[in-house]
Every structure is written in C-alpha cells, then in structure tokens.
C-alpha cells in the first residue's frame, strides 16, 4: 500500500517526466535487440539515443536509420514517434476511454500539464479531437505518398515508405528511410518533386501549429471567432515561414551547391521547404553543410523558436516568442499592459514566457560549453547541434554521427528536456512550497 500512496503523491510534471523516461527506456531495450538491427546488435547507448530522438520527435541519429535497423526496428521507431507525438498520456487516455474507464481528476491534471492547457475542463475531449486529427491527416498523407511512391518502389515498399514518412512528418520527427540510396540523405533526392515537397510540408506545418488551432479552424464556420492563442499562433507561424523562406532564398539564390543549379520554380520550392523545416520538422531537401553560414544562423534562430503549444513540435514555442516580442514593444511604447487584438495578456503569462526563454538559453549555452569540451568540433557546429537537439528539430551539420559517448549522453539529455520543456523539468524536480502570505516593500533598482 505504501508504494501506491507514494505514486499517488507524484505531481503532474513528475508523472510526465517519468512516463516519457519509461517509454524511452522500453524503446531503447527493443532497439538494442538483435532482431531490431540489420547486422550486429546496436550498442545500447546508440539505441538509447535513437529511442530518445524518436520519442522526443527530434530526428537526430548517430547511425543511418535505413542502414542500421531492420524492418522490426523501423516499426519500433515509428511507434515511438507516434507515442512521442501524441504523448504517452494521450495514448493512455485513448485506451482508458476505449475500455470504458473513467478519467479521474489526477489524470486530467496530467493531461492539462502535458498539453499546456489553462483549464482542466475539456482536456479529454481535446485528446479525442487529437486522435481524429491524427487519423484524418496521417490517412491523407499516407494515400498521397503511396500514389507517388508505389509506382517507383512497388506496392510493399512504396506503401511502407509512405506510412513511415507520413508518421515522421506529421509528428515533426524527421526520420527517413532513404539512407539505402545515400547515407544521411534525408529528402535531398526529392528537392524538385512537388508532390513530396507539398505533402511533407503540409503534414509538418499542420502538426506544428497545434491541435487546438486545428480544432478552432474547423469550428470557425460555427463559432465565427478565434481565440487569442489561435490568432497569435497563425500570425507568428505565417511570419516565421515568410522570414525563413525569404531569408534562405536571398542568401542561397546563387550558391552553386544549393539553389544555384535549380530552376526558378525549384528554387522557390526548395526555399519554402528549407524555410519551414527548422520549425522542428527535421527533414531537408538541401545538403545542410553546403549552405552558407548566414543560412545556418537563420536556421538556428528558427529552430530555437520551434512549433506551437499542444503540437507535435518542440520549443520554445511560437506564442512564447510572440509574448516576449509584444512585451518589448509595449515597454518601448511606455505601456504597462501587454495587449494585442484588443486583448490584454496577463503579467503572469509574460513572466512565464521570459522564464522559458531565459531557462532555454541557459540550457543551450551550458550544453554548448560542455560539448565543446567533449567533442573535437568548432563552437558554431556544436551550437547548431545543441539548438537542434533542444528544439527537437533533428537538423545536423554532420556532427551527430561523430559524437563521443559523453556527447551522445549530453545530446540525449537536451532532447529530453527540449521535448518536455525546461519548466516541466524544473517543476518535476522542485520541492512544492506554499506561497507566502506576505509581500516585501517595493524598491526600484536601476535597469539598463
């Protein structure tokens, strides 16, 4: 009875951290089995790295997926991606509903924490919507990619490729199976393919804007309104897509190793794909090491911002970024309140956004410093790798396969923190305290 009571005292953040950790450990055990590999069994540390990358929907790999893992191993990776995208609590809730079990208050609190909700009410309904969204969009993606790849690869391989890459794209994971043709090639072989570019980008954009936004877009014809959250997500997403596409197009237009050899139409398509993918997707149609340093820096900024809350993507999240931008703009205009779209954002939300931003920067910079000690690489490549891992993006300049064992552990940790969020990890580790019933006298220090 004592262990059960101890488990009942776990806070929602602690449940999330433990749940994700257990899922990763189970996945690493399966991937280390002889049946999961093409040749010799994968070393456990590599299996742990791959399992973490899949559950955290990152896409960073120390070995090429297609060349290393068997069909069984690839199915394990695909399942881990699906669990990581929906969230293990989402899967638990779905099974509980199917079995006719009641979702208690404790489970609803964990769901609220998992999907960054403000209220407990409606979280179970949100999970039901999420499952429907998964079935619809992954079904459409599977059909379209099957039509494209079955004529080229045959029924079995074409349909299998369509399923794997649909799951990977919608969950913003970035895993691919085209290493059989060229190791760590991602989707570079389809840089001029409009079908593959179109459906893959559509999947990871929809997966990255968040399930709440998708539901509100669907319900708009009845409600006739969007919440402030949806407005901010759509505005920020469109702005970042335009910034990414236009920035890459301007910098890389004449680069003979990337866009320079393509037609104008293909340049636009490749720029759009590469401008969107840093938002945690992890796929690439251009060879990243061939891009100019300015493009690498732009990609790092986009990776750090990431996708939106309640999505399959990573952080710091679009709304966090926009809240900070709005706070800065309000301060410049001399206003105490942060407002937009005729709505005022509570100061508590602004503090939370600033906390997430600062904590994330400290984490990335700290991990970068450690990786410069453990790895024989320049600081820029290390910084790119750390940001990619934290943002659960999966883009790499070629450093991942060369990581030392300690480097693999550090990247594994930063992927884990990036998926759950530094605030969730902090709340899970912190001791719960009662807020004080007093306030100190106010005094203004000199700022700036």
TrEMBL record:
GO molecular function: potassium:chloride symporter activity
Keywords per UniProt: Cell membrane, Ion transport, Membrane, Potassium, Potassium transport, Transmembrane, Transmembrane helix, Transport
Subcellular location: Cell membrane
Entry keyword annotation includes Transmembrane helix: yes
Top-rank lineage group of the source organism: Bacteria
Transmembrane regions: 15-36, 75-99, 126-147, 199-220, 232-251, 297-329, 350-373, 409-430
Membrane topology value: Multi-pass membrane protein
NCBIfam families, sorted: 2a38
UniProt-recorded name of the protein: Trk family potassium uptake protein
